[in-house]
Amino acid sequence: MGPKGYGIDHDVVRNIAQEIKEIQELGVELAIVIGAGNIFRGVSEEAGGMDRASADYMGMLATIMNSMALQDSLEKLGTHTRVLSAIEVQKIVEPYIRRRATRHLEKGRVVILAAGTGNPFFSTDTAAALRAMEIKADVILKATKVDGVYDSDPKKNKDAKRFNQLSFLDVLNRNLKVMDSTSISLCMDNKMPIIVFDLFKRGNMQRVILGENMGTLIHA
Fold it and tell me: Phi and psi of 140, rounded to 5°?
């Protein structure tokens, strides 16, 4: 959403798309899970006391909008892209099928995974963990607004300490708000590493993929 505070900022989307294009040109297979907090978040105050399942479904539909915006920016840059949705909306995006997703990746397309898991009460973090297992990803890259995981909110505490590495149990025991506990547990059970890094510093996405020591690594 950028500085607007709501909706889709197309300058931000173009910048992210440009970075994705540069990574894809290195031969890296990328599957991207997108949230929708810029439009609607089922667990937020804006849900206004709605039934949780209904609010979550609205959030899933909003992720499809974000996915289409990113797809449009990527394809304007000449990057072949497919949006696969856990909720079937066949007139605008493809349904998510695991083998179809892996085939698109093999063909060099960027795959955007929309609508979370397709189920209410599960976050897009859990969707990222689940899809990572299904497509046999090497790592989950959690792109955020901060440059890693801290022991307290760095925006509120100037003495907050950033961790270079954490175990999954550390994250759960310390109740660190990296990803929700369901997604962390799923990654722990399947030994899927997570790297948390700052999305908004130009070039960070490529640096983390090339193995530069940055952000916070969460592993077994």
Answer: -100, 125
Residue 85 and residue 120: Cα distance in Å, rounded? 14
Give the CA distances from residue 128 to residues 20, 26, 141, 180, 213, in Å, rounded to whole numbers and listed in that order.
17, 22, 9, 11, 22
Q: Are residues 97 and 155 in the same domain?
A: no
Sign of the alpha-carbon dihedral angle for 18, 12, 140, 146: positive
Other Cβ atoms within 10 Å of 185 Cβ, number: 16
Could you tell me the CATH number of the domain that includes residue 154? 3.40.1160.10
d(C-alpha 215, C-alpha 204), whole Å: 10
* 118 & 153 share domain: no
User: Is the pLDDT assigned to residue 46 strictly greater than 70?
Assistant: no
Mean pLDDT of 51-59: 92
Cβ neighbours of residue 38 closer than 8 Å, sequence gap 6 or more: 1, 6, 7, 8, 66
Residue 40 near residue 58 (C-beta atoms within 8 A) = yes
Are 120 and 86 contacting, i.e. CB atoms less than 8 angstroms apart? no
83 and 52 inside one domain = yes
The string of pLDDT tens digits covering residues 131-182 is: 999 999 999 999 998 999 999 888 889 899 999 999 999 999 999 989 999 9
> Which structural domain range is residue 98 located in?
1-123
Q: 114 and 31, same structural domain?
A: yes
